[in-house]
Amino acid sequence: MHDFHYHRASSLADALKALAAAKDGRLLAGGMTLLPTVKQRLASPSDLVDLAGLTELRGIRAENGGLGVGAMTTHAEVAHSPDVRKTIPVLAALAESIGDPQVRNRGTIGGSIANNDPAADYPAAVLGLDATVVTNKRKIKADDFFKGLFETALGEDEIVTAVHFPRPEKAAYVKFPSPASRYALVGVLVAKTAGGVRVAVTGAGACVFRVKEMEEALAKSFTADAVKGIKIPSKGLNSDLHGGADYRAHLISVLAGRAVTACG
After folding, report:
1. Looking at residue 14, which CATH number applies to its domain?
2. CA-closest candidate to residue 163, choices 110, 204, 205
3. Residue 51 CA, distance from chain mean position
4. Which of 119, 147, 165 is the last residue of a domain?
5. Are residues 19 and 75 in the same domain?
6. How many domains does the chain have?
7. Pair 158, 136: CB distance under 8 Å
8. Using CA atoms, how far apart are residues 221 and 20, in angstroms rounded to an integer?
9. Are 59 and 51 in contact (CB under 8 A)?
10. Given this model, what pLDDT does residue 32 score?
């Protein structure tokens, strides 16, 4: 591990100040991805700015008929929250499926979506539920937030402070997890929202994405049969030792049908 300067931020303003002063600063939320990356010398930031002490970025609250989730809220807190289970149960179920107890008690929603790992679960929730990402500067719609492999719309001096999730009419998330990491080999979230049907896929490509053909089919008939015959092109999908692109394409169709059925 390379030497670096460690800052434990006492406020959002303090974190931004430390980040601006650093030569190559990185924000530390749960550290589930960043710390192993630094240990393996795949990254060598000059400064780490720890957000763990920012209680202003934690918590879950009712907000405009949906829920506002602070960026430093852990997966375990989302999974066990009575408010989440009552208002958006699919979000609690998705959070409960992430990693293991150690990961769920350290990892945060803000860290997960800012990192935008192609196999992470939370991006599917944000995109599938048509959430809005709130930063210290602006509000970003889910469709504009995720840009590509480990890439988001966040600027260098921008920090995720919260995520607003509108309440869906119905929604379900089904994933085929890697047996080793419980990351999604493929995960599909299907939601019937006020703005229409949304189908978000994680794990299959370089970045979470929507399947418009499935959304259009489900808008006409919200049944598993509506997506059963839709073939997903394998071109551009991930292919690795866990599964090829063709396999992942097939899984998308299978899991989408299961998610629709799980919606009830």
Report:
1. 3.30.43.10
2. 110
3. 18
4. 165
5. no
6. 3
7. yes
8. 51
9. no
10. 87
- Per-residue pLDDT, 253: 97
211: left (phi over 0), alpha (psi -120 to 50) or beta: beta
pLDDT at 29: 95
Q: How far apart are CA 247 and CA 249, in angstroms?
A: 5
Which amino acid is it at 37?
T
Residue 71's CB is within 10 A of a number of other CB atoms, namely 27
The pLDDT of residue 124: 98
Whether residue 107 sits in one domain with residue 70: yes
- Is 201 found in the same domain as 161? no
Contact residues for 110 (Cβ-Cβ < 8 A; gap 6+): 29, 51, 57, 70, 71, 72, 73, 159, 160, 161, 162, 163
CA 212, distance to chain mean position in Å, is 19
Tokens of 249: 């394409």
Determine the pLDDT at residue 181. 82
DSSP string, 115-131: HT-TT-SHHHHHHHTT-
Task: Give the number of C-alpha atoms closer than 13 A to the C-alpha of residue 231, restricted to the C-beta side.
Answer: 4
Residue 259's SS3 state is: helix
41/84 Cα distance (integer angstroms): 38
Q: Which domain holds residue 78?
A: 55-165
Give the pLDDT confidence score for residue 127 in this predicted structure: 98
Handedness of CA 101, 107, 108, 109 (dihedral sign): negative
In the listed set 165, 180, 200, which residue is the last one of a domain according to the structure? 165
Please indicate, yes or no, whether residues 63 and 135 belong to a single structural domain of this protein: yes
Average pLDDT across each block of 10 residues of the chain; the chain has 264 residues. List them in order: 90 95 94 89 92 96 96 98 98 96 96 96 98 98 97 95 98 93 94 97 97 98 95 95 95 98 94
Provide the CATH number for the domain around residue 196: 3.30.390.50
